[in-house]
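Database export, one record per block. Field names are fixed; values are copied verbatim from the stored entry.
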Amino acid sequence: MGSDKQVAAGLLDTLKMESVRTILTHTYPYPHQHSRHAVVAVFVGCLFFISFDNMYTFIQGLDNNIKWWSMYVCLFGFFYFFSSPFIGKTIKPSYSNFSKWYIAWILVAAVYHLPSFQSMGVDLRMNLSLFLTIYISSIVFLLVFHLTFIGLWYFGLVARVAGRRPEILTILQNCAVISIACCVFYSHCGNKAILRERPLERRNSSWFSFFKKEERNTWLAKFVRMNEFKNQVCLSWFAPVGSASDYPLLSKWVIYGELACSGPCAESSDEISPIYSLWATFMGLYIANYVVERSTGWALTHPLSVNEYEKLKKKQLKPDFLDMVPWYSGTSADLFKTVFDLLVSVTVFLGRFDMRMMQASMKSAQDGSQEGDPLFDHFSEKDEFWFDFMADTGDGWNSSYAIARLLAQPSIQLKSGDLPPYLPRGDLLLIGGDLAYPNPSAFSYERRFFCPFEYALQPPTWYKDDHIAVKKPELPAEVSDLKQYVGPQCFLIPGNHDWFDGLHTFMRYICHKSWLGGWLMPQKRSYFALQLPRGWWIFGLDLALHGDIDVYQFKFFSELITTKVGCNDSVIIMTHEPNWLLDWYWNESSGKNIGHLIRDHLNGRCKLRLAGDLHHYMRHSYVPSDKPVYVQHLLVNGCGGAFLHPTHVFANFRKFYGTQYELKAAYPTCEDSSRIALGNILKFRKKNWQFDFIGGIIYFVLAFSMFPQCDLNHILREDSFSCRVRSFFIAVWDAFLYLLGHSYVSLVGVIVLLIVAVSFVPSKMSRKRRAIIGLLHVSAHLSAALILMLLLELGVEMCIRHKLLATSGYHTLYQWYRQVESEHFPDPTGLRARLEQWTFGLYPACIKYLMSAFDIPEVMAVTRSNICNKGMQSLSRGGAAIYYASIFLYFWVFTTPVVSLVFGSYLYICINWLHIHFDEAFSSLRIANYKAFTRFHINCHGDLEVFTLAVDKVPKEWKLDPQWDEETRQPQELSHRRMHPSKWRATVAHHDPLATVRVVDRFVIRCTENSYLQSNGPVHSG
């Protein structure tokens, strides 16, 4: 027997197991690193063994039946499209990892029943059953080990660092990898203990012979015979470690190998199973590393290797930016909270409680006057003045930081020859609402709004995040008055999203804090008036959820116009919503108080209206005529960081306050906007994979009453493909008629979905059109659900007819495994019987029911056969629940790509053909590109120069800016004095916003002698 252990000495004998094991462990390993390296080793092993199989036999075994190939194409196609959003990505919500394991589970459970794999000589049943058995055993073994180790720590027998509990996911992952390794070995090497009666010359052959010229032909012959090479690997590398007699203490606790004899074996096996040896090796490595790390404190003294440390350092030098808000997420608590806050705001606050009223009341109680507080005139004495405007930020960090980085720069260099060489940073930053998405929570304000601006322009060193400003403005120590402060300042108005909680978060973070990054925030209310140089004014209005100002704002601004705004002054009105576009789109009339203020009080002095809310850039300028002009220019710029909105939907706007307007600029262009909408068909599910939760349940409810379809033989009996297709769609129609006439759950689902679909159509459409659009939408979903239902039922029916499913009850896999186990895994000591006795039957029962739970197709097919033979009444409630749960597991995978395709196509048709759903169709795309802000310049002549700067493509990768890091700075120095104020820059230099920014619109508003209701001259644009 000793000589048998020395067979196959050669090349592989020189590969010592110690050197191989070092591959599986890191220099300073942590338990979570074990599985990563083991996965690599197992994957390489799989490729090695599979590549050396006889490919001729593999190919010759393919089944040429078109039905099975069609089933393979459908099965793998649906599974690919389901998993495509997660390929090559790590999505932080655990849904991504769950989907990968879920796909692996039900795909393998389906594939191993199909005939082609069996005809190829690949029987997955043994691999599956062996995997599940080893997996359960490994989990139990490691749990017992960890409980024992924690007990030793509790009694003080090991170091205190051992008290750190291991992650359950780490244990499960290691057990899975160990089980896969054992299954791969068994598939290609078996459980052979000793290969008897092998030729002596082959046993003693040298693997170094291929280095000798005289034996090169022999080596080539061996290379051609791949199976012999594989057997050599199995014998030399994974040979049995010895007999049980060599280890008396383990003789009753090991698994024995199978004897390989030319005929019947006269003796029982005494060799330890190589599978058991492999399993014990992996478990020993895990336990040894864990004990050394936790008991000696090695994990504290050697926390990371050099490579891991460098990776961690690079990761720390990259910002952890948040992604765009998933508006179609069916699992997002933030979105449900947003809906709840909106309902509360509309039903409780709207018309009953108004924070603007409380602001006015508090001011009156403090000093008996409302005037003066929202008015700021400290900019009015400057000769020239630069200021910026942006809106709708606080969504994705990449887009929000890109704009914040541009705003923070001391100047922006322009490359175009007909433009100024550079544009200096604005002394004033205006933000037009919707500061954070999806709701105004503390998390969204701090992480999505404040953090990007703090990275772009750091706040003073003495500033604390939790500080509450009691008396504003809180100026630096060397500045006594707001007029003396030369740094950038910021004024903000709230948007509709900021009002979802009744303006509570806005008041807390804006009106009671002093700094937005390096921008000083002097304002105390949600609305304000700014007196600028050369007779320019800015009115920042708070529209709340009404779309209009309240009486207190109206009184303040009307009195301000009467007492302080000069006859030849020019006013810029900033609101969140562009009511000129929205009123035209919805065919409504809003903002009556604003209209009264502009027409009857300003009397033509309103030169420009600024707004956000729509996440694009559009400028409309008046068409000269004899009629009075109340507003010269209408400008929308909501490109501050939120998802993109279309422009082509609003291209036909022409009239406001009785004045004709024409579109002067749009970003993106109307043509680009229409083309971008095509992404709803191609990318809806990739961008909105969390919509699976909703879409899968909807389709399952629509098809619930259709399961099972017991009479499908007429489709399979057809001879030609065209006849089968015709019979298939006849069956779809019959299923639809059954739904209308006999079903309950599915019919209720269709009615509810129809009501929701009709309500989902925008109210701008007539009731008749809404009903037609909703009906067509539901019909597309219902047709897709019924077709997928029949495809699933046809697949199960084909497998049942060919005796691939429903052959021997619910425990087919377990029964087959017990039979094979008794043949190939000898148990002379009765170990299995002892385990069953000591666990009171739980050990085999757990494996039995785990195999049944894994084999979902078998459970589905057996239950389906029982229903078709005995009727639905033969099932208990528990049996019915198990049946529909097994259907849902596969039907969900089939439906989620299809429901996204149908819904995305609906959005594309609506936005490009009907010009409806502009919000829904573009929020689904979550586009971070096409971001812009507007920079204004009041020159020495009193003219207002307007530049809109845009970035077409927002970087996705950022790194620490070395110029920021190396720049010397004083401890109390304010960040706006730095040459490089922003911390992060794009990883690729030519992708940085500073390198890609360009001017997409430029025009000039002239200062006029008399602006009362004049038709004014032509618009001066550049």
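Remark 1: The mean pLDDT is 80.
Remark 2: Residues 746 and 752 are 10 Å apart (CA to CA).
End of record.
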